[in-house]
């Protein structure tokens, strides 16, 4: 006898014709059954990670065996097949029938199968499972809305208003709080001449929204009701609140995730068992903090002394620094600092900076304390240079150009012999200060200008404060506080989004924080692709909701493009991967069209193009991003993109300069160890120095990093082997190859092949690349474009391998 599950609406379980009413009350057993039934073929490790993440492997496996035994006792043996490392379930599920019918275009069958929201009323105290449920629920709900909308439209087009009204009533019965369903029923009632019934239903719906969700109907629905009360004609094909290109484009694609309820997946319980060294934990947490801070502008409340600019560039005057030494002995240095600072700031699109000559003219006509008398500018930058026996002392001040009050001041001191270094140091510090102190405030003003709801704005500000607390907790390794503040922030943002249902920023910030959480999850549990996918699909839903609210909101497009790009990396099917990559690129390009100054969109586009091995286009996008703001938090990533693209294009001198800049600005960042390794291993114009690479590995603490990334030391040592091969030391190169022969790491296969190329052993290189292609077919076609394998371009075996991969 077969097992049947009803999951759309009320949850019910049947064995043949017999219902098992006791099973839905056993929440964990039912959750496991539903998960296995919907996923159909899943690894044991995925099940353990979903339901027993806090238990060690042995105890988790015991719990799974016990639960499966109890389910088989209740349901029989024939519904599940237990393999060595996988579980395969064969269960009839209405949700799967609905999805299959929808995918095959059998609209009426799909609508008959839909009995309500997925797992309505069922919950489990398990965030991973709840995330999975919300992803399924959102995808099914979105598909149902599309089918129902199109079905009603077809009935109207077929001149069947009665059928359209019946369909609208059923839609409301199945989902009484759905905005579009309510709007459609009101419209159909009015179009059928039942205006009194339409108004009566609206009043009931309005009360229900207030009681259950504490929100009001959408403005579109209010406008429709106002037209009905005024006796206006109701169009037969009115534009409904949710009919937008975002939802239509995503229908049938990868599932988004969730509804508008607050949800923030927790840091996995496995993190509590993360027992690596304290130094290593700090390193990974610091990386996660840096990633979180890249949301940047949302982390500071605007202060009363800051003029807020919402609709234009910030006007900025850089006044000549005052030389306060006897005899003005540092006048030349003061002028050089002034000009360099003004030129540096003028490169940022945020600022409209007065020219150096204009600054000098302004100083000549102003009073002695001119810093406080330039009201036509939003901000004024100035200061003084002085010296004593301890060296040179520079004071830089940022003033409110309208009130003259000091917004920020910075002091830099250097020994006399370092006066030349002072120029670069001060310019870098001042640019960073202004980016942080002014840029954040200006962006907040622009965000504030997009909502007229003061209560929503206050919730947004409170949410940002919680995000700041979460980041600080993360930096301290306090995961409990991090979780608590993340949940509080997400709840506040969800409330802000409900209070102003046209305001896109709260949804975008929710998505960005979920996306950044993926970085932390990857650091803690790099193999947990299921949890990663759940997080990304939740972020995808946030992006689409932001875009629904404002289709011209560039950050919404950028967020969706970034998330789709990450989902493409997780795709197992090559067609799905290509589809997601194409959609991601289209989203990011659209974001740059809507906002040419969106540095994040340009940077994300560069990363996508790099992964596609389109190095020339990637370099162009990375250059656009870097020039927009050379001191932004994401600049190290952009520098790495510029290195990789230049290196793969064979532009070694430029690649070396980007690598050097990265090591200067971010001396602890692993990508800039890799760039040094790559230059010595494969760049023809760079003399190989294996000893330099050995010292670099020690300085970066590769042995410690290897505790979390076990493959890292072997990969880097293999790059040193390539440098030995280039340095005419083949014995040393082969000795390293003999130490690292693990065939389970595709990256190591690729690197070992590159060493054989340097040794002139093309056949051995092609054999290893064939193994690599067998392990990772999706990446194999790009091998021919990678720098280490240019020399194999005319090898017959290599040509056959690439042709087969394509």
Search tags:
four-stranded mixed sheet, six-stranded mixed sheet, about 800 residues, alpha/beta, about 60% helix
Describe the protein.
- By secondary structure, the chain is α/β, with parallel strands linked by helices.
- It is built from 34 helices and 13 strands.
- Strands 8, 9, 10, 11, 12 and 13 form a six-stranded mixed sheet that branches.
- A hairpin with a 3-residue loop joins strand 5 (80-82) and strand 6.
- The radius of gyration is 31 Å and the shape is globular.
- Residues 236-310 and 358-375 have low confidence and may be disordered.
Largest sheet: 6 strands, mixed
Could you say which overall geometry the principal axes of the C-alpha atoms support? globular
Give the N-terminus to C-terminus distance in angstroms.
46 Å
Structural class: alpha/beta
State mean pLDDT (0 to 100 scale). Answer: 78
Number of strands: 13
Give unreliable regions as ranges: 236-310, 358-375
Number of helices: 34
Rounded radius of gyration (Å):
31 Å
- Give the helix level as a range of percent: 55-70%
Amount of beta strand: 5-15%
Give the arrangement of secondary structure elements.
Elements lengths: L2 E4 L5 E4 L2 E2 L7 H13 L1 E3 H8 L5 H19 L4 E3 L3 E4 L2 E2 H10 L3 H7 L13 H31 L3 H14 L4 H13 L3 H18 L6 H11 L15 H6 L27 H16 L20 E5 L3 E2 L7 H16 L4 E3 L2 H10 L13 E10 L2 E10 L5 E9 L4 H30 L5 H22 L3 H21 L5 H20 L4 H21 L4 H17 L3 H21 L4 H13 L3 H14 L6 H14 L3 H14 L5 H12 L7 H11 L1 H4 L6 H15 L3 H10 L6 H13 L3 H14 L1 H4 L15 H10 L1
Helix pairs in contact: 4-5, 4-6, 5-6, 6-7, 6-19, 7-8, 8-9, 8-10, 12-16, 12-18, 13-15, 16-17, 17-18, 18-19, 18-20, 19-20, 20-21, 20-22, 21-22, 22-23, 22-24, 23-24, 24-25, 24-26, 25-26, 26-27, 26-29, 27-29, 29-30, 29-31, 31-32, 32-34
């Amino acid at each position: 006898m077969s097992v049947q599950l009803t999951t759309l609406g009320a949850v019910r379980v049947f064995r043949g014709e017999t219902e098992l009413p006791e099973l839905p009350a056993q929440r964990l057993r039912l959750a496991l059954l539903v998960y296995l039934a919907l996923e159909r073929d899943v690894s044991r490790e995925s099940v353990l990670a979903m339901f027993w993440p806090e238990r060690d492997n042995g105890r988790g496996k015991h719990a799974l065996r016990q639960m499966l035994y109890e389910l088989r006792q209740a349901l029989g043996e024939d519904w599940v097949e237990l393999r060595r490392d996988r579980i395969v379930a064969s269960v009839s599920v209405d949700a799967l029938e609905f999805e299959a019918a929808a995918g095959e275009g059998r609209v009426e069958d799909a609508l008959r199968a839909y009995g309500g929201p997925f797992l309505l009323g069922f919950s489990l105290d398990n965030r991973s499972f709840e995330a999975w449920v919300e992803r399924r629920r959102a995808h099914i709900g979105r598909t149902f809305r599309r089918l129902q909308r199109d079905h009603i439209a077809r009935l109207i087009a077929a001149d069947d208003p009665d059928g359209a009204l019946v369909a609208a009533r059923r839609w409301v019965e199945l989902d009484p709080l759905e905005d579009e369903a309510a709007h459609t029923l009101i419209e159909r009632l009015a179009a059928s001449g039942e205006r009194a019934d339409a108004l009566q239903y609206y009043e009931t719906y309005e009360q229900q929204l207030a009681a259950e969700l504490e929100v009001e109907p959408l403005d579109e629905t209010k406008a429709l009701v106002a037209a009905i009360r005024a006796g206006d004609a109701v169009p037969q094909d009115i534009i409904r609140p949710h009919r937008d290109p975002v939802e239509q484009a995503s229908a049938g694609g990868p599932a988004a995730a969730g509804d508008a309820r607050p949800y923030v997946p927790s840091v996995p319980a496995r993190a509590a068992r993360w027992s690596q060294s304290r130094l290593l934990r700090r390193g990974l947490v610091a990386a996660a903090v840096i990633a979180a801070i890249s949301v940047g502008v949302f982390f500071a409340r605007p202060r009363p002394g800051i003029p807020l600019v919402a609709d234009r560039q910030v006007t900025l005057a850089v006044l000549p620094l005052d030389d306060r030494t006897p005899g003005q002995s540092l006048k030349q240095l003061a002028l050089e600092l002034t000009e360099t600072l003004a030129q540096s700031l003028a490169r940022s699109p945020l600022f409209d900076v007065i020219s150096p000559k204009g600054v000098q003219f302004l100083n000549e006509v102003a009073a002695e304390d001119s810093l406080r008398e330039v009201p036509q500018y939003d901000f004024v930058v100035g200061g003084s240079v002085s010296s004593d026996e301890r060296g040179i002392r520079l004071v830089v001040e940022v003033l409110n150009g309208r009130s003259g009050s000091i917004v920020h001041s910075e002091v830099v001191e250097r020994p006399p012999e370092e006066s030349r270094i002072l120029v670069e140091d001060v310019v870098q510090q001042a640019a960073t200060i202004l980016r942080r102190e002014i840029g954040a405030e200006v962006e907040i003003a622009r965000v504030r200008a997009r909502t007229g709801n003061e209560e929503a704005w206050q919730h947004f500000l409170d949410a940002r404060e919680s995000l700041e607390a979460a980041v600080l907790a993360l930096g301290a390794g306090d995961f409990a506080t991090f979780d608590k503040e993340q949940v509080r922030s997400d709840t506040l943002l969800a409330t802000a989004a409900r209070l102003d249902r046209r305001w896109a920023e709260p949804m975008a910030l929710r998505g960005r924080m979920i996306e950044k959480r993926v970085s932390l999850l990857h650091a803690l549990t790099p193999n947990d692709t299921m949890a990663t996918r759940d997080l990304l699909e939740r972020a995808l839903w946030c992006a689409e909701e932001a875009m629904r609210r404002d289709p011209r909101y560039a950050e919404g497009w950028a967020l969706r493009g970034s998330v789709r790009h990450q989902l493409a990396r997780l795709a197992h099917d090559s067609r799905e991967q290509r589809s997601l990559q194409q959609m991601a690129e289209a989203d990011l390009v659209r974001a740059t069209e809507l906002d040419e100054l969106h540095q994040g969109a340009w940077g994300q586009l560069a990363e996508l193009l790099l992964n596609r091995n389109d190095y020339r286009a990637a370099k162009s996008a990375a250059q656009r991003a870097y020039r927009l703001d050379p001191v932004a938090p994401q600049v190290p990533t952009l520098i790495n993109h510029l290195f990789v693209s230049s290196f793969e294009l064979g532009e070694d001198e430029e690649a070396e300069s980007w690598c050097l800049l990265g090591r200067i600005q971010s001396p602890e960042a692993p990508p800039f160890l890799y760039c040094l390794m790559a230059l010595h291993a494969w760049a023809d114009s760079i003399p190989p120095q294996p000893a330099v690479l050995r010292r670099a590995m020690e300085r970066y603490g590769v042995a410690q990093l290897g505790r979390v990334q076990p493959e890292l030391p072997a990969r880097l040592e293999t790059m040193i082997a390539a440098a030995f091969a280039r340095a005419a030391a083949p014995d040393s190169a082969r000795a390293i190859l003999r130490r690292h022969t693990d065939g389970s790491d595709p990256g190591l296969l690729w690197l070992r092949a590159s060493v054989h190329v340097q040794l002139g052993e093309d056949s051995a290189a092609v054999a290893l690349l064939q193994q690599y292609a067998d392990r990772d077919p999706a990446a194999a076609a790009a091998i021919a474009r990678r720098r280490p394998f240019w020399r194999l371009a005319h090898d017959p075996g290599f040509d056959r391998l690439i042709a087969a991969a394509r």
